[in-house]
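Hey,
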Amino acid sequence: MNSDFAVIDSNLERASEGLRLLDEIAHFITAQEGVFTELKTIRHDLQDIGAWFGPARLVGARGDTGKPGAEVMGAEAVRTTTWSLIRASVGRVAESLRILEEFSKIYASPATEFVKHSRYAVYVLEKELLQATPHYYLRRYFERGVIYPLSESVEEILWLVEHGAQMVQLRDKTSSRAEVFAKAKFLSAAIVEKNKAGGDQILFIINDYPEIAAELPVAGVHIGQEDGTVAPARRLVGSNKIIGRSNHSIEQIREAVADGADYVSIGPVYATPTKPDRPAVGLELVRQVADEISVPWLAIGGIDEAAIHDVRAAGAKNMAVVRSARNFFQN
């Protein structure tokens, strides 16, 4: 049998499987019914593409080579977020469609433009899918540099959002769980309403309570070293919410990254009354993190207007602030 058809058949199935994952994400996770419909249409159109290649395009053409993509399962196992699943699946679909486009020039020329159009359509839909994930904005903000204020006050968080904060955290270490839930519910409703205006989305993070983050329409949760590992939090909040992790050493950061944290913090950089029993880690550790860590990360602890320049010079583009938060958003 012509071995070309093993390649054609394998990539038709590979593209179909990738599209199926994407339309499941659009339907069940990001709730984008328009995107879901378009992806489903492209997936069904693959059947017509297969027909254009003729009867030689059979599953049996692959022989004993196994299911397509089996060789990358190990790499796929490390994907922990909807964002990463979308990126990987679109890459897989686009590669398969590109291969089909080339073979169609040989065996099914009427299909060539159709396959090419489908590939470009998938790229357009990828952007729409990614923009429905909080991780899209997390990476966007951290790449350009962000001041990330933390507060226990509903009033202050609302003020910060109105004055330009793109990422805020409810960090309440003294209230009861019920009180934190009430605050988070009120804030999440207000921020959801503000985000309806479109454009860059405000990311609202809850400190310490993954079960509250799972229940409310928030961007994610931040957990400390005393709050367990990332995996239990991920099981609670799912793949389409952010999990941040506090760290006080490079070893803890490495572990958090390996566990699938979406962003990590290092601190306290300077002594601070918000962590009275925690010694400062200093700027040298910030430099080490800047040299080694590629996932989104930030510095925290005692950072005010006077210290921010030294922290930036050490390599931190992103900083969390508590007591001095309003000072960074006055203008």
